């Protein structure tokens, strides 16, 4: 007998301002894979957010699943995968991290790897190169993480944030690799101390659930936003208008170009209506934190 699985992985936002490459927050926007064993590989996209011209050998799901199986000296069997996504590509909402986490889980299931949660954190973060989006997608909630030189991830989860989030998604793409090119190679010591202190205060404010301070320190980044802001449509205007409409704070989502605001839950619908009037060319979505992280459901047993 062979099984059919549904793998669901939340997207995420990273950094929240100065939490560069270390703070991630899962959002209730999802990547979904329906997986079954097959005679040959087949990946079907059934979402507007996913491309239709698929080369299996170059597909991220296939390449990461095969790499994961190979780490444990297993051969990945062919699968039929139906892929749905609410995460637009290259917009700063963790689409690649979600796909990596999903692919690792696919290999875990079909090769019976019996990976622990720590294994999934380590492998996904090693592939991503940093633990922010990957940790949030694996665990759910907000994660504050560090990855050492051996690729071992240490993370502290923060749950039950009493806040909503609004994402401003422009029609343009911005790959993380391109956004990193504008960053300085090094910082002067005093500048680095201020940037680090702001990141520390953001983390402390998140743990304390001090939303006014969360907003303040989200908007105090010195590591990347001053250098990336010119690449982001309406970056300064969104900051200003969101603050006037009641947001605690606004920051780039990951490397951008999406911008995210943290707001009191009570103003969510009115906030979105107001923002849509000012920024009609953006897709504006009211969302909240996902608290489950990756989930797997066995759909049914079918004859092999």
From TrEMBL:
Subcellular localization? Cytoplasm
Kindly list the GO molecular function terms attached to this UniProt entry: homoserine kinase activity
User: Where does the record place the GHMP kinase N-terminal domain?
Assistant: 60-141
Which reaction equation describes what this protein catalyses?
Answer: L-homoserine + ATP = O-phospho-L-homoserine + ADP + H(+)
Please report the stretch or stretches of sequence annotated as the GHMP kinase C-terminal domain.
Answer: 203-280
Q: So where does ATP get bound?
A: 88-98
Annotated pathway, please?
Amino-acid biosynthesis; L-threonine biosynthesis; L-threonine from L-aspartate: step 4/5
Instruction: State which Enzyme Commission number(s) the record gives.
Output: 2.7.1.39
Keywords on record: Amino-acid biosynthesis, ATP-binding, Cytoplasm, Kinase, Nucleotide-binding, Threonine biosynthesis, Transferase
Q: What is its main location?
A: cytoplasm
Q: Which Pfam families match?
A: GHMP_kinases_C, GHMP_kinases_N
For this protein, the record's Gene3D superfamilies field holds:
3.30.230.10, GHMP kinase, C-terminal domain
Q: Does the keyword Transferase apply?
A: yes
Protein family (similarity comment): Belongs to the GHMP kinase family. Homoserine kinase subfamily.
Q: Spell out the PANTHER family in the cross-references.
A: HOMOSERINE KINASE, HOMOSERINE/4-DIPHOSPHOCYTIDYL-2-C-METHYL-D-ERYTHRITOL KINASE
Physiological role: Catalyzes the ATP-dependent phosphorylation of L-homoserine to L-homoserine phosphate.
Protein name, please? Homoserine kinase
Upper lineage is: Bacteria, Bacillati, Bacillota, Bacilli, Bacillales
The primary gene name is: thrB
